[in-house]
Amino acid sequence: MVPIETRARESRSDVELRLFVRAHGSVRAVTDHEWKLRQVISLTGAMEQDRSDPWPVEDAPDSFIQKMVDSITDLVVSIDRIEGKGKVSQDRSDSD
Description:
- This protein is an alpha+beta fold.
- It has one domain.
- It has two helices and three strands.
- It has helices at residues 33-48, 62-70, and strands at residues 4-11, 15-30, 74-90.
- Strand 1 (4-11) and strand 2 form a beta hairpin.
- The protein is elongated and about 60 Å long.
- The two termini are 35 Å apart.
């Protein structure tokens, strides 16, 4: 289990919101070249789809694609449980 924590704070002159979130789960590294290549092709397609002349990964030389995909460390995060707390304060000074 790997705890992942994040904090957020939103302020206005009259209201302050504080959030604390902890995610519990596992992380695994993917080393399969074909799996990583499919992810790169999918992500590139999504990012290029709105362009007038979208660039496909396959336009790059095979040796370049091989080198770039081999240099990627792909992590899969599985979240089993999320816990959160929040606090809202109103009409408080910054020193509080």
